[in-house]
Amino acid sequence: MPNIIPLHSLSDPALGLFTRLTEAQLRNRLEPEKGIFIAESPKVIRIALDAGYEPAAFLMERKWIDGQASDILARCGDTPVYTAGRELLEQLTGYALTRGVLCAMRRPALPSVEEVCKGARRIAVLEDIADATNVGAIVRSAAALGMDALLVTPCCCDPLNRRAVRVSMGTVFQIPWTRLGSAPSDWPHPGLETLRALGFQTAAMALREDSVSMDDPRLLSEEKLAVVLGTEGDGLSSHTIAACDYTVRIPMARGVDSLNVAAASAVAFWQLRAR
Asked: Which residue ranges does the record assign to the tRNA/rRNA methyltransferase SpoU type domain (predicted)?
């Protein structure tokens, strides 16, 4: 039976998980095993549960309990289900109204780079991408378009950021991923050396005169390839580009100089996927 707990005030401490804690507080860098992230919408929550993620608490309007969230709650034992009427929820952030159901979920321990890359032929590496929407879109493209795993640098936006999870449509729970180092000094060195030790050639996506076109047959012939994408605006750092095995560009028409990093990732993943 669901453990239903009615809310009567916005000052209720139970709402802190959903409305008052920052992403950094939810993530709990000092004690990762106590960290939390927020999943929104029944579809995304189901994917997370299927992947083994553990719920800590729910927040929803009462009608969802016996409606579209009933099958979810049946899977979650006595996990607290905080609920309130529409008028109270309308005073919150808007997430509860637009997505119906929120679930605070416990963060698992991140696997090692070696575990994530075991058996992988194509991986994506995200360098310092700050925008959660872009990270979520890239994760979704990576999952859909043939990437076997995804690595993020220490300064990259958290793939379990609330917006990133939502934009990924739950695919962040389906594709293996982890962080490539824990401190800013871990990238690009020794991060790139770690990839080479695992047998990967590295392809830096960048607009440079010495770059090769994405349809270069040498890229497709690589047994193991890491596609490295840079932050919005500035792109990859010059140190990263210089240290990668290839510098790769997407051919452009009509004088367009570049694509948004999320759009570029989709093109790159499709073209460079393992055959």
From this structure: 123-269
